[in-house]
C-alpha cells in the first residue's frame, strides 16, 4: 500500500503499476479490501479543507479528508451535510463516500450525495488530471462528470478533490415511532406519510416492522407537527431525545452489518418492498428499509451472496456489497454495459481501475467523441 499526499504522487504511482485501487478510511470492507493484482493507493494523507465559503454554503475538500472532521468544521458554522453520510465515526473519507455513493436516512427529504456534489477533481487511467463541475450552487452547463463519479467505486478514476453544497443546521429534532403487525401495513403507512404534508426529515422501517420518523426545524413548531403524526397513526409515540440520538447514530454506523455479517445495499422503491421481502425468504437476511423505502439494507452471511444475486436478477434489481469480503461488489441486474464501455474507453482505456461489473471487459473501440470532449483536462 502506497501513501499518497499529493496529486503528482498519485500520477506517478498510476503510471508505474498495472492495476490500482484507491483506499480512504477502509470502512467499506467489501469495496476497499485487497484485490489480487492491485496496488493500493492510500489516500488518507491527501486530506484537508481547500476552501470553505459559509456564506455561499459550499465547501471544497481533498478526497482523503475524514467526513467526521468536515462535519465538525461545518457544525462550527451551524451547517451540515443533510444526506447523513454513513460510517463517519468509523473513519469514512469524503472520497470514499462519493465513490461508494452511500447516503443515509436524510436523503428522504434532501436527496442523496448526488444532489450535493458540485465539482470534482480526479486522476483518470491515463494519469491525466480532470476537473468537472463548478464550485457554485447554480451550475447547469456541460457534461455532469461529478454525478457520474458518485457510486463509481473507483472504476472510472481516482477522486482527489470534491466540492459540496451544505445546508443550515436545524436547531431542533424530534423522533417518533410506531409498530406494525405486518410489513404490508407498515409499507402502506410509509407511502401515505411520504405523500402527506408532514415534511419529515427521515422515515425508516426497521427489521422489527417499527416505523421511525424524524422531523426537524424550530423547536416551537415541532410539537404541532408531532401531534399531526400521532393523530394519523395509532400507537405512535415520541422517542426520548437520548434514545433517538442513539438510534439514528446506529443507522449511520450501518450497525446491522457488523458482527461478521455481510451488508448489501439494494436501491428500491416502496412499491417493490413487499415483493423484495418475499424474494429474500430463506436467505436468513435481516432487512431494514431506509430513506422512505428508497433503499434496502440486507445483512446476511457471505455464502448467501450467490443466491441473493440470482434473486435480484430475477427482479431486475441491482445491489452493492458494502461490508464483507472484497471481490466483485456488484450484484443483480448488470445495467447498461455499453454506456460503461464508452465511458471507460475515455477515462480508463488500459483498464487500470476496478471493473464495474462481472460482464465488463476492457474497451477496444474508439472513444466516444462526445464523452471525450466533455472531459476537460489540465
The major pleated sheet works out as: 6 strands, antiparallel
How many domains? The number is: 3
Number of strand elements:
20
* N-to-C CA distance: 27 Å
Task: Evaluate the radius of gyration.
Answer: 21 Å
- What is the top-level CATH class of the largest domain? Alpha Beta
Name the structural class. alpha+beta
- So how many helices? 13
Shape: globular
The CATH architecture classification of the largest domain is 2-Layer Sandwich
Strand order of the largest sheet: 4-5-9-7-8-20
Pick out its properties.
single chain, alpha+beta, Uridine Diphospho-n-acetylenolpyruvylglucosamine Reductase, domain 3, Alpha-Beta Plaits, 6-stranded antiparallel sheet, 5-stranded antiparallel sheet, 20 strands, about 30% helix, disordered C terminus
Walkthrough of the structure:
There is one protein chain. 30% of the residues lie in helices and 25% in strands. It has 378 residues and is an alpha+beta fold. The chain folds into 3 domains: 2-168, Uridine Diphospho-n-acetylenolpyruvylglucosamine Reductase, domain 3; 172-252, Alpha-Beta Plaits, CATH 3.30.70; 255-332, 2-Layer Sandwich (Alpha-Beta Plaits). The chain has a 6-stranded antiparallel sheet. Strand 2, helix 2 (29-32) and strand 3 (39-42) form a beta-alpha-beta unit. The chain is globular. It starts with a strand and ends with a strand. The relative contact order is 0.14. The model is unreliable at 358-378 (pLDDT under 50).
Amino acid at each position: 500500500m502506497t501513501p499518497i499526499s499529493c496529486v503528482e504522487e498519485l500520477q506517478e504511482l498510476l503510471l508505474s503499476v498495472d492495476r490500482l485501487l484507491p483506499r480512504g478510511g477502509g470502512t467499506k470492507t467489501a469495496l476497499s479490501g485487497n484485490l489480487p493484482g492491485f496496488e493500493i493507493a492510500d489516500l488518507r494523507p491527501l486530506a484537508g479543507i481547500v476552501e470553505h465559503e459559509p456564506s455561499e454554503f459550499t465547501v471544497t475538500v481533498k478526497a482523503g479528508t475524514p467526513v467526521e472532521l468536515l462535519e465538525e468544521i461545518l457544525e462550527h458554522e451551524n451547517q451540515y451535510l443533510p444526506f447523513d453520510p454513513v460510517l463517519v465515526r468509523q473513519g469514512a473519507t469524503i472520497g470514499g463516500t462519493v465513490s461508494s455513493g452511500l447516503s443515509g436516512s436524510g436523503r428522504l427529504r434532501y436527496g442523496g450525495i448526488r444532489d450535493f456534489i458540485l465539482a470534482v477533481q480526479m486522476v483518470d487511467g491515463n494519469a491525466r488530471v480532470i476537473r468537472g463541475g463548478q464550485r457554485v450552487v447554480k451550475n447547469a452547463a456541460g457534461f455532469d462528470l461529478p454525478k457520474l463519479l458518485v457510486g463509481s467505486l473507483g472504476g472510472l478514476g481516482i477522486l482527489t478533490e470534491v466540492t459540496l453544497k451544505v445546508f443550515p443546521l436545524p436547531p431542533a429534532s424530534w423522533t417518533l415511532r410506531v409498530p406494525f403487525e405486518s410489513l404490508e401495513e407498515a409499507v402502506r403507512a410509509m407511502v401515505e406519510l411520504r405523500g402527506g404534508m408532514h415534511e419529515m426529515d427521515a422515515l425508516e422501517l426497521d427489521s422489527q416492522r417499527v416505523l421511525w420518523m424524524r422531523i426537524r426545524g424550530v423547536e416551537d413548531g415541532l410539537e404541532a407537527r408531532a401531534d399531526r403524526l400521532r393523530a394519523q397513526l395509532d400507537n405512535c409515540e415520541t422517542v426520548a431525545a437520548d434514545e433517538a440520538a442513539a438510534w439514528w447514530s446506529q443507522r449511520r454506523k450501518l450497525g446491522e452489518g457488523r458482527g461478521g455479517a455481510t451488508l448489501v445495499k439494494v436501491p428500491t422503491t416502496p412499491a417493490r418492498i413487499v415483493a423484495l421481502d418475499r424474494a429474500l425468504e430463506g436467505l436468513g437476511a435481516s432487512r431494514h428499509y431506509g430513506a422512505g423505502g428508497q433503499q434496502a439494507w440486507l445483512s446476511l452471511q457471505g455464502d448467501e451472496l450467490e443466491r441473493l444475486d440470482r434473486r435480484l436478477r430475477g427482479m431486475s434489481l441491482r445491489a452493492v456489497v458494502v461490508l464483507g469480503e472484497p471481490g466483485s461488489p456488484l450484484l443483480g441486474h448488470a445495467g447498461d454495459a455499453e454506456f460503461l464501455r464508452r465511458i471507460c474507453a475515455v477515462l480508463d482505456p488500459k483498464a487500470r481501475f476496478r471493473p464495474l461489473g462481472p460482464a465488463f471487459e476492457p474497451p477496444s473501440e474508439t472513444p466516444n467523441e462526445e464523452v471525450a470532449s466533455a472531459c476537460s483536462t489540465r
